[in-house]
Amino acid sequence: MKKTLVLIAISLVAALTISCSSYAKHQTPEQMSTPFICSGLHMKNAQWDFVDDYGVKIHVDGRCHAGRRHGQFNFYYNNKMLAKTKFVKDKEVKTTCITPKGQMATSLEGCMNMHANARNQASSTK
Prior knowledge:
alpha+beta; 3 helices
């Protein structure tokens, strides 16, 4: 019985070691130019530069854990922070939208939409 438990414990440790090592600890240039996807990554300082749905070049930095977004992700446009979003196991938990009027809690999609509308209004008044 004791040998069986030891064998099971060793098998579990080996399986965990193998499963964690299958994730990349560095991003390729292709991964960095896509929207912020953590698939296949396990790293603290992941970065992405991509064009969003509104045609705006966005920079994102965050943490990937076991192929999922986990922790705080910061969104920038022209070196100006747009939003801070917390993810837990790839699910958006909390987003703080940074606006000229201050910070507000909203969804990430709502925040990006708000910034896009503000840019469109600013460009149409010129």
